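We emphasize that the prediction below concerns an isolated chain of 560 residues; any contacts that depend on oligomerization or on bound cofactors are therefore not represented. The input was used exactly as deposited, without trimming of termini.
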Amino acid sequence: MQHKAPHRMLKYYPLLLMLTFMTCVSAQSYKITYHRSYNDKVAPDQDPVLVFTNSQQTVITTQDISQSLAPYPYETFYVDRQKNGYYKLTNFSASKELATFDTLLLNRNQITFTEETKTILGYVCKKATTSVNSNSIELWYTTALGVKGAPNELGQQIGLVLEYVRNGNSKITAVRVEKVKQIPSHIALRPFEEIVDGLTYQDELSKSRFTQVPIFQNERINFSEHTTSDSILRFANGTVIVKKVKIPDIKAGSQAFVQLVEKSNGDAYDRTGSVFLIAQDQAQSFLDGMRNGMNTLPMYSNGDGTAYPGMVRTHGYSPIYELMRFFTPFGVSHFNNRLTLKGKTWQDSVIYRQDISEFLSVMAGQEVYIGTYIGNYDKGGHIVSLEMTIHPGSSKMDFPKIRSLFNTTNVMEMGGQTYARFFGQEKGLEMSFELPEDARDVQLRYITTGHGGWGQGDEFVPKENSIYLDGELAFKFTPWRTDCGSYRLYNPVSGNFQNGLSSSDLSRSNWCPGTVTTPNYISLGTLKAGKHTIRVHIPQGAPEGSSFSFWNVSGALLYN
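Result of the prediction step, given as a token string:
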């Protein structure tokens, strides 16, 4: 919803703007062309900045905008010298524009004047300095032309800025100054269709620069007898939600992010969570098992006496892609009033955000199933909102190919999918896959977290992960997080110990309550077409009474 500017004088702006335009015809006008450079190297293939200025107004635009060649959205900056204020105008399309007006920015920065001079395009310029967000700024300006202006909002009141220098190496420099009869009518200040407050304007502009794909909005993930609706599928007693989502066509070089907002709705514990994508590249998918029973999916067994459904790729079946592994904190939001600590203010939710651009090759322009899992046994459970954002980029590189290999996170825990305890066997996880053609720049996108929540369980004991490709060790490391105490303010009901620590402070096997576990990208080089074998070995700890350890690992192959 857009709000009209509150000041009553706004209704007279069109008339005042028209009068301004009429009076500017007789004023001497100039057109200044600027080039951008870095370390004195002029940026190639740039769209030059253009400044049109006279005693009445200044317009900052670009060559492409002035010639109607710029892609939407684009922004133009106008200084109204009579009002000592400025307008920002964004054109979102040929039929939609939005403007805002302010008087503050022109005088906001403290400027220091010096006597240092240099000549630019034959004009003697003096140096002024200021600082913006810890960036040192030099403004080289001249008063010889009797007009004011600059290639951006800084220095608009001091003269005609012919060079802007940021931190000594990034420059916007005038390369041509021309007299013009008047500022062209299609560029000059004019009445605008709608003027809104600055916050509304900035929000609209920001959102126009990327695509939002909403998935879930304030959905509950809990342990109950939820039934499936037409729009949202619920499985495993409500602990898994899935939605069919249309992903738009996406240009090469774009980036995609998933963002999940989570808060407790009654569950006080740290829980494993996963945002996942159903792989649909083979005849059978994980969704088939969710609908028909997990025992209908291929089983994995390594000799420990248990069969594990749906975790490993086989001929004809692909496990889920894990987009993001996250862990809920101890009761954020719902339990914020249970414990008050001096100097601590609990957060009202957790935001998890992660780059998932490598999955765009299997999502762009398609309808896909995206789901979220939080393992819990609480009727209140958790409230989540999930969206994907897609951001255009300048790169022309194609998205890598990707295929799902394994995912041992038992997202269907309450639907018959058991914990991955098979790393207790020397074989660990071993599976084969086949490449139809030679692959280069191959990477294994690998996420791993250890679990077993007593003192000697693998949650609290560092364990080395070893990855073997075709029988040879490709990579090994010990996944371990020592920064969990940084997230104390997300954990209002984390258990507190006699030694002054909280449970959420404790180091863990690659996860902390209230955080994302980031993937490892393991280089596998170039692989020939044909069959290959991957083995994951982890020295999983032995059970102790009814307590046991397990490992959630997921792997997807990226290649060109």
